[in-house]
Amino acid sequence: MEQMNTRVTRAAWRNQRPRKKRYITGFDGLRTLAVIGVIVYHLAPSSMQGGYLGVPIFFLISGYLVTYLLIQEWETHGGVNFLSFYNRRVKRLYPALVTMILGTTAYITLFQRNLLVNIRGTVLTNLVYVYNWFEIHHGQSYFDRFSGESPFTHLWTLSIEGQFYLVWPLVVVGLLLFFRSRIKAALVLFAAAIASAIAMAVLYDPNNLNRVYYGTDTRMFAILIGAAMAFIWPAYKLSGNVTRSHRLMLDGLGLASLLGTVILFFNMNGQAASTYRGGMFWFTMLSAVLVATVAHPGSDMNRILTNKLFSYVGKRSYGIYLYQFPVMIFYESRVQNIGNHPLLNALIEVTLIMVVTEASYRLIENPLRHYQYGRVFSDVKRLVQQPAAHRVTTVLGGVAVVCFALTAVGFVQQPAAAKPTALQQTITKRQAEAQKQNEAAAKKQKALAKAQAESKKKHDKAVAFSKLSKADQKTAKYYFLTADELTSSKQTPLTAIGDSVLLDDSGDIQKVFPGAVVDGQVGRQAAAMPGVIASINQRGQMAKNVLVNVGTNGNISQAQADQIVQGIGRDHQIFWVTVHVPTREWQNQVNSMIHKTAKKYPNVHVIDWYTKAKDHSSWFVSDHVHPNDHGNRYFTSLIAKTISHQLSK
To answer: Is the dihedral of CA 190, 196, 198, 200 positive or negative?
Structure first.
């Protein structure tokens, strides 16, 4: 009888809910803030360069809620039901994740087969929540928005959360057993958070952000800070009966932290060294103050962040986050004028994301969250026997089977490696050629600088075309240059720094500017330029005239533009090429910044490639960004003409 009573007690304990459980509605507001930041960052990084910071807010909330609910369960029942915890987590997270993975893989198997590279590893590591480590070794930078983005890249966060959920009940129980003082337990967690932030700072490498950006050890501090808060600031123990002065203090801290969080959303660059050497940690601490004030029932912050819209978005934030990248990448691969109509396309993409999310929420997430999986075999049998009586379920089951079959096809057909496109082969070849040319070109720069100075002193008359050699006449005709323009270009020392567009044109540039040193890299963004400029200066290869071609791969802030100009030096003439990227929203922002920088610095001159090329789609390869051979003639011609005319003034 005693054994039977024990079993009954345990069964009752498993089914009993913790007391005093309070749903903190303001957390839906925080989730809304976080997901808006992430979405806007992905849609328009030029508008909100720190939107990626929504992820630490998600981590904070997860760390806080999961930990305080486990502590509450321990205090209420004298233990933690591990199986129940894991069951709730799996039923909440797995159905939508599997749906997204199967649907996305099926789509790329049918329509974007170039994304099948590493598809097996991508799918399998996501299913076991270790995808973030797979990304470190196989994925592209989170900030590379141009070079064939993967629709799975953003799932690294779910892997870190999955790893957290797996071990955290054990960690919490261990801390509760080992420490009688909750403050001591919180200090241990906070010390671990500091160690994680230090690891981020130490392991930071500007040439390989993946390690610190995706690593569990380097990103865990946000979850740990939230968990530490749960030990010393548990919502279920906080009283709403506070004095007016305490309420004002809580509200003041909450509003200040909310304002600071929003400001950093707009200003903290994801590729700046300061972000990884303390910046993201202090942002998380600031956001922790916001989370703490929202959790406190004596503060008005919970009410401020509670409304029907925030509740709607917050409850669907998981689905919104899940489906955002596939929708964006698939849509943008079909639409080529995003840069010319960024707001319209952003609205269309947000609408599509919300439609997909709502369908998933109603048909997948909510039903399966409460589904009793022990009935699956009987339900399948009933469905087969009476498909007409369960039409929606039948359709969903059919779609699932098709997606699963297409995923299997994708697994079988996964290429061993991505085949380089004709453009990639050309760029690689020209990069090697440019490096060889650079060695000889560096030696010519001093002689060219001296010859240029002597030419100015002599006030040479216009050069007759007939006086050019036959080879030079051919070059001038090919690039639409006059004899003066070609002669000036050949006598002009030039250092060219840029991205893949520059690399693609490097051979043409070095024909017109024989002494040009070309330093280009695929995917290069403005954030990398200061280091590149410092390296060129260190090698003594910075000519008096500098061609800058950066902005193809992402937006440029005023601070970055200033760093580039100041790094090169005001005693140099800088020629900055505007970008032609109609497939990306940052095109207009980058070009506006280039023009603004030219007005700010008298030694900066604009080479307006965008205006020259925008109505000539035949000048570009299929990506509408890199010029083809015909386009490179006009690209080189514009550079030579602009530099020649400016230097002749």
So the answer is: negative
Inter-helix orientation angle 82-111/391-413, to 10°? 70
Position with higher pLDDT, 15 vs 397 = 397
454-470 burial code (b ≥16 CB/10 A, e <16): ebeeeeeeebeeeebee
Check whether 233 has a pLDDT greater than 90. yes
- Closest to 488 measured CA to CA, from 524, 513, 516: 513
Instruction: Please report where in the chains the tokens 């240029």 appear, as a residue.
Output: 452
Model pTM? 0.85
Instruction: Answer whether residue 238 shows pLDDT above 80.
Output: yes
State both tokens at 408: 């299997």
As to burial, measured by CB atoms within 10 angstroms (0-12 exposed, 13-18 middle, 19+ buried), residue 167 is exposed
Rg for the chain, CA atoms, rounded: 29
pLDDT band (50, 70, 90) for residue 62 = very high
pLDDT single digits (tens) 362-376: 999 999 888 888 787
Neighbours of 202 (CB within 10 A): 11
Task: Please spell the DSSP secondary structure of 587-605, one letter per residue.
Answer: HHHHHHHHHHHHHH-TTEE
The residue type found at 164 is F
CA–CA separation, 48 vs 347, rounded Å? 16
Contact of 632 with 505, CB cutoff 8 Å: yes
DSSP assignment of 552-569: TTS---HHHHHHHHHHH-
pLDDT for position 227:
97
* HSE, side-chain direction, 13 A CA sphere, residue 230: 25
Q: What is the DSSP string of 167-195?
A: HHHHHHHHHHHH-S-HHHHHHHHHHHHHH
The string of pLDDT tens digits covering residues 408-455 is 998 888 886 666 666 666 766 666 666 666 666 665 665 665 555 555
User: E-assigned strands of 463-582?
Assistant: 494-498, 517-520, 545-549, 573-577
* Structure token pair of residue 11: 């069964």
